Amino acid sequence: MLKLPQSYSDRKHFLIVGALVAIVTVALGFFLLAILPIKAQASMQAEPIKWLFQLHLWLIAFLFALVVVFMLYALFVFRRRKNDDSEGEHFEGNTALEVIWTVVPLVLVVIFSFIGLRTLQDATSGGDEVQVKAEGFQWSWAFSYPNGVTSAEMVLPVNKPALITLQARDVIHSFWVAEWGPKQDLVPGMTTSLHITPTKVGEFQLKCAELCGLSHWSMAATVRVVPEEEYTAWMDAKLAEQNLQTASR
Fold first, then answer.
1. Which class is 130-247 in CATH?
2. Deepest in the core among 74, 159, 179, 239, taking most CB within 10 A?
């Protein structure tokens, strides 16, 4: 029987494994995107966050395939055959391969760190026009505007940059409107902030994304994004209502 050169056999195995890794990566990547739908699409900040999240899913699919396919291929192809009691072939480490699997992950970490920092920078850019303070407490939300208007719901004009100042009265909470993308913690004794530009009119739900106690599940509030003229009318009505209440005391 003609015995193939070891180098040719090695290349053949690597080509097969490489093809299997590519196939599994694509299949798993689309599977993850299908079962993990991203709702973030209703703010200017949502698109880069959505893209970064999808990029991470593809990286996860590739790393999973790289490890699992190599492992299963080795277990199946190089398993000990029946009645084979011979010793396995001795081989030394591969310096080039060790350098590659050390350097490549390091490069990927640096690249993803850079992309993450750029995405965070874009999501926290200034140019704010609308300001509102959101206070979280067990287990509800309260909103107030610079002109003194307070409300149990948050109302913002569409396509206008907004600065949401966040404060916690008791324990750590987290401000998250899934359709907007970013979320931000509220830390007792600190003031944090979230920059957002809503791009879709509609009614959304604000949820606390940090386990904060017994009724954490019910800590939600309504967020309405409306046309600018409707926002102005709502603000005038709330201001007149509060002035009337103050005058009647």
1. mainly beta
2. 179
